[in-house]
UniProtKB/TrEMBL annotation:
PROSITE patterns attached to this UniProt entry: ADH_SHORT (PS00061)
PANTHER family linked: 3-OXOACYL-[ACYL-CARRIER-PROTEIN] REDUCTASE FABG, SHORT-CHAIN DEHYDROGENASES/REDUCTASES FAMILY MEMBER
SUPFAM superfamilies, per the entry: NAD(P)-binding Rossmann-fold domains
Superkingdom, taxonomy of origin: Bacteria
InterPro entries, per the entry: NAD(P)-bd_dom_sf, Sc_DH/Rdtase_CS, SDR_fam
Organism: Phyllobacterium endophyticum
Gene Ontology molecular functions: oxidoreductase activity, acting on the CH-OH group of donors, NAD or NADP as acceptor
Protein name per its UniProtKB record: Gluconate 5-dehydrogenase
UniProt entry keywords in alphabetical sequence: Oxidoreductase
Amino acid sequence: MAEGIGQVIVTGGASGIGAGVCELLAARGQKVIVADRNREISAELIESLASKGINVSARRLDVSDPEAITQFYSSLLADGILATGLVNCAGINVRAGALDFKPSDWQKVMDVNLRGTALMAQGFAKALIREGRTGAIVNVASMLAHYGAPNLISYSASKGGVAMVTRSLAVEWASSGIRVNAVSPGYIQTSLTAKIFSIESYRHTIVRRTPLGRLGNPEDLARVVAFLISEDSRFVTGQIIPVDGGITAGDTALG
Ligand code: NAD
């Protein structure tokens, strides 16, 4: 087992915030496993990081499939890998108004964002507890775990759930030496938000509303995730930390 101890799993690590997390952690010497459902973009990321001299490994995983999660952890065990860090970054959004959302879309969002997060944490903690090791989890919530917005009901509900899963697991697993925290990204430029930020007037409104006066980027998140995964945050657990340029701090429109 010694060979593989200390690796960090990053779900949704092939793109956007997850890819930024993989790059920063690996550049700082951490062994990183990208766990993403998209094989092609995982391969692209590995290639682009390799061209910068940064190495990560990847395994295909759909976090909405409980059986696939069980198999994922079995395969790590079979390969002698014990992860001591988990970043739950995989997430999707289906926009729909509260009057007309479809039950199937609601379920799809919950299966990835909420149940996927909880089951990945469960498999991670079981492996650590079995080996008598300690570790850290960072979940990715959203500003919409802190306040509401129209047409995002299933997404907001899932991210509010991620915040509560984070607190619950932190309290339940503290005595096992497993810390659990979350980050709440603000407006971050990734493929998830590319379409809305391509609308100039929308982009301008968001930047004006953001106290630090710009959109966020994956590295802004990665730096906070790296802190929460590391021993630098050894006395921090159960916290949901906005990384949003100050949006949740107040309303710039009142100035
Ligand atoms: P992204 O679309 O760029 O990346 C998401 C990644 O998750 C992709 O690589 C995708 O293949 C993977 N993924 C999706 N479903 C999966 C599944 N079932 N199993 C495994 N992998 C899966 O998005 P992003 O903007 O980087 O978002 C990352 C996280 O940050 C998400 O949880 C999102 O909700 C959250 N977030 C993003 C923003 C933002 O402004 N971009 C704001 C708040 C929260």
